[in-house]
Amino acid sequence: MSTLCVLRTRCFLRQVLPGLPAAMHRHYSLDVSAPLLRTQGYVDGRWVSAASVFPVLDPATGKEIARVSDCGPAEAKQAVDAAYKAFHSWKQCTAKERSILLRKWFDLLTLHKEDLAKLITFESGKPIRESLGEIAYSASFLEWFSEEARRVYGDIVPSPAKDRKILLLKQPVGVASIITPWNFPSAMITRKVGAALAAGCTVVVKPAEDTPLSALALAELAEQAGIPAGVFNVVPCSREKTPAVGEVLCTDPLVAKISFTGSTATGKLLLKMAADTVKKASMELGGHAPFIVFDSADVDKAVAGAMASKFRNSGQTCVCSNRFLVQSGIHDRFMEKLGKAMDAELRVGHGSEPDTTQGPLINTRAAEKVVQQVSDAVSRGAKVLKGGKRLDGSFMEPTLLANVTTDMLCMKEETFGPLLPVIRSVRLLCSWN
């Protein structure tokens, strides 16, 4: 089946809603150089089409920006086999040889940072300033591991026998399955893959179904950098095929290592599947981070910290603060200044607009979850001080809640959205416990 390659999309948000800036009612175009907008899987150094395709949507408009090959278990198995075959030659490369190739890959990311950032913004909704920051962050991993590849040292251990020496040599484990999230569609790949390739491992990447374009662009640049066939493979797939593809990547006996970033529930499933073959696993799962403000705090610094830790990427990062506990003596001043900061600093809009700070949530399901948490909190006595409403499509107003209690959903579940709930606490340590 032929693959649709969309070089330019024109998206228009038609419905005029209060709270959305005028910029949201314009046309938006995704313009990137043709080689970077790849829509096929990348297996064994070849671009491969699957029997079907799935759409990639701009979450700001709901419009299709590309159709990507919907790889299944067969393509995943081909990728694992290719990675295993390539491992035997890749591990024999010298550290210097691997270092040079990773450095070339880094240079290409830096060269194409503008186009790569546009891809992130249009497939994830992230504001362009944050997308540019992510590309710099992504490239830095390749730069770091290109240098660390030369410094994989062993050890000499004292021997109990006079006629023997004990040497410890570090060896690559083999094929690594890399399963990455949508909120950092470039950085989470280079962070994992850079380390694996530097060590001499080969990889199969399954990017998030919402954001496959960034992963495929990285594959294009890896190919340009000279990364050998089979060393770096990408198998994009739809949400419907993700369980079957994930099963191959976690159960195939040729896979030695799994690295996953995502929800705790999914991480548990992957660990169970990997248990039968006792694979090494690295899991970066969900969080529920607290943000604690004591009476002795500098209120201006506390507000600045809350803004930075809550509203980055519209609250869609695993390190976003989720629960805010503020002592009574500083509570009212903190809430007043926080509300003013939200009014002054947060701008909802399409991520390609330079003044946008809050893009859409990744999809309508994510927006519905935030609405559910707000509704639950209000039904239990919380007060909405700012926002609280869902806007068009996947957009959500940045929301500030007061009178929050520990029995509310927003205090029990990770939000992954622009919701800032505050518990007023007289005895903070008791609340923490």
From TrEMBL:
GO terms for cellular component: mitochondrion. The gene is aldh5a1. GO terms for biological process: gamma-aminobutyric acid catabolic process. Transmembrane segments: none annotated. Belongs to the aldehyde dehydrogenase family. Residues 47-424 form the Aldehyde dehydrogenase domain. Its EC number is 1.2.1.24. The lineage of its organism: Eukaryota, Metazoa, Chordata, Craniata, Vertebrata. It comes from Dicentrarchus labrax (European seabass). InterPro entries: Ald_DH/histidinol_DH, Ald_DH_C, Ald_DH_CS_CYS, Ald_DH_N, Aldehyde_DH_dom, Aldehyde_DH_Superfamily. PROSITE patterns: ALDEHYDE_DEHYDR_CYS. This is Succinate-semialdehyde dehydrogenase, mitochondrial. One of its GO terms (molecular function) is succinate-semialdehyde dehydrogenase (NAD+) activity. It is an enzyme of class 1 (oxidoreductase). Pfam families: Aldedh. Keywords: Oxidoreductase. Pathway: Amino-acid degradation; 4-aminobutanoate degradation.
